Amino acid sequence: MKRFLSMFIIVLVIIIVYFSSVTNLQFQLKLNNINVIKFINQNDSEIIEIDINSNIENIKKALSLEIYSKNNICDRIVYECYSNKLNNFVVIDGKKVNIQISITDNKIIIGYPLISTSF
């Protein structure tokens, strides 16, 4: 019994350490088999680069996104969206926005609540 309890505690500690280092956005993406390539946490925002082979429908499904706008800006497509799976948001044109996605030919960047660096 003591051995079982010791093993249980070790496994529990490993799980807690793993999930404490993964943000809710990363967790939602990984849970849906979307490969996170790069992660930057800046102040109150997160910037994540994901596998270029992911498509907007997979991302939309993984985060339960409501897409408010799609804009072509120079060589990229930029989406402004809202996910009820994430807490923080900003208000743009009277709507809650907490996910911004930038897609180019070679990169997909997701910002939560917005992309706060140059992409």
Tell me about this structure.
Helix content is 29%, strand content 39%. The protein has a 6-stranded antiparallel beta sheet. The chain has a two-stranded antiparallel ribbon with strand order 5-6. It starts with a helix and ends in a 7-residue tail after the last strand. Strand 7 and strand 8 (108-112) form a beta hairpin. The longest helix is centred in the N-terminal third of the chain and has 19 residues, at 2-20. It has 3 helices and 8 strands, in the order ααββαββββββ. It has one domain (2-112). The protein is α+β, with helices and mostly antiparallel strands and 119 residues long. It is elongated.
Termini separation: 54 Å
The total domain count is 1
Low-confidence stretches: none
Global outline: elongated
- The percentage helix is 25-40%
Q: How many β-strand stretches?
A: 8
Main sheet strand line-up = 1-2-8-7-4-3
Query: What is the strand content?
Result: 35-45%
State the major sheet.
6 strands, antiparallel
The pLDDT mean sits at 85
- The number of helices is 3
Rg (C-alpha, Å): 17 Å
| H/E element sequence | HHEEHEEEEEE
Main structural class: alpha+beta
